[in-house]
Request: fold
Amino acid sequence: MYMQEHRAAAAHHSMAAVGGFFGVYSILNRSETFGSSETANLIYLFAAGLSGSRAEFLVRFGAMLIYIGGIVFATLAARRAKNNDFRYLAIAIDIIACVILAQIPAGADPVLALYPMFFAAAVQWLAFTQASGFSSSTVFSTNNVRQCFAGLTEYICDRDPKHLARFLFFGGTLLCFHAGVVFAWFCMRAWGLKSIYACIPLALWGGVATLLDRRGGKHPEEHIKKERSKYELT
Reply:
């Protein structure tokens, strides 16, 4: 049981590094546009609509549709996968997105330039949504920060091992996410927009970790501990 959970967590944390790379790459190269979630894009979408900026509205509306399309695609693909592990397809889509992103010139509209990332991040979010009994995103960090330090606080208060496990899991996700950020920063200093190619080895490593998880036993969702279910996020 615990070895299976460890392997699932390792695969999850490996893909968090990809999420961190995607995040800093999009923010620093594309006018501080975050291509891994829809929160800011939806705010700007409504602001553009209210201000009458038709061109910006259409570009951001397209980004919303692509992100939703990624969610729908991931949901349907996971249903059809059955015994096959959908996580491999998500990794392949990440790699394809990296190749496409490297071809988009610096002068392109920053939101339009991140369309491949919007799709890939949405698919990765659904493919790597939980491990070791915890639900966690590998493409953004707000809930991971909350869960990490809420778990630490509760452990300090009552010394319950399940809160320590919560802290360690979400802390590991944050650590790997920001390791991806640091790696991407150095790569961007050296190669600029083409640095996105350096994310491909991270995705491949995530594939290796996923393979080890699959060979280690059941699919991670099949051995989630029930007592941890209250920490799952929607």
